[in-house]
Design a protein that fits this description.
The chain is mostly beta strands. It has two domains: 98 residues, no CATH class; 83 residues. The protein has one helix and 17 strands. The strands form four sheets. Strands 10-11-12-13-14 form a five-stranded antiparallel sheet, covered by helices on one side. A four-stranded antiparallel sheet has the order 1-17-16-15, with no helix packed on it. A four-stranded antiparallel sheet has the order 2-3-4-5, with no helix packed on it.
């Protein structure tokens, strides 16, 4: 049996559905301002048959979270510089400049300075899998090194209002191997985040509704 990708969308439900789900409270300064944020991590899965547990991050004294996501293995750890960071299934999260929780220091976004206009092959892939008629000028590609081979995988994302899904404000993206074979196809507001984990990868995409978290087993990418 081939490995399967496990995916969850967050938030996992509206507030009143949280009910009596127990949670533990952690504290950490996740933006470096000297004041700890409150991290509420559910101690039991919310949905039957789904191992993900939702977590929420609050400013001191606040009732509205600055971040909601989910994971199976969730903890607060120290970076090499000594700063605390929230780690959820290998993905690093922190409070960004816009006061919201975002992943950071992954394989893709860390190379965002190297984004280039996609090749004709990249354009063809997006056209084939849903971005019909997309112009090459609207194709943005980041090359990343995943394995030990010479070739690089390509993270290809569409752009341009005409090719955006208006309901979710997302664009088609494709992760392809060095031979341009599509391996992962999804939608996100921009390129997805991708973290290497001991068992494979954690991929995170974003829409106006929240984040989608996917655990990708070894052997797919």
């Amino acid at each position: 049996m081939s490995p399967e990708i496990v995916t969850i969308n967050t938030p996992m439900g509206v507030d009143h559905q949280r009910g009596d789900i127990p949670y533990e409270t952690l504290y950490a300064d996740l933006d470096g301002d000297g004041v700890d944020e409150r991290v509420e991590v559910e101690t039991a899965p919310r949905l039957e048959g789904v191992a993900f547990r939702e977590w929420r991050v609050f400013r001191e004294g606040a009732t509205t979270p600055v971040g909601i996501a989910a994971g199976i293995d969730i903890s607060i750890r120290q970076t090499q510089s000594g700063a605390p960071v929230l780690v959820s299934d290998g993905a690093l999260w922190r409070i960004a400049e816009n006061e919201k929780m975002y992943p950071y220091s992954d394989l893709v976004m860390s190379r965002s300075d190297f984004v280039v206009m996609g090749t004709k092959e990249d354009q063809h892939l997006l056209h084939t899998y849903g971005a019909t008629g997309i112009f090459r000028e609207n194709v943005r590609t980041i090359a990343i090194q995943i394995g030990s081979g010479r070739g690089q995988h390509r993270v290809i994302a569409g752009g341009g209002f005409a090719f955006m899904d208006e309901q979710t404000e997302t664009f088609l993206f494709i992760i392809s191997d060095p031979q341009h074979n599509p391996l992962i196809i999804g939608r996100s507001a921009s390129h997805p985040w991708l973290f290497r984990t001991p068992g494979g990868f954690t991929m995170i995409s974003e829409s106006i509704y929240g984040h989608q978290i996917s655990l990708i087993p070894e052997g797919i990418l």
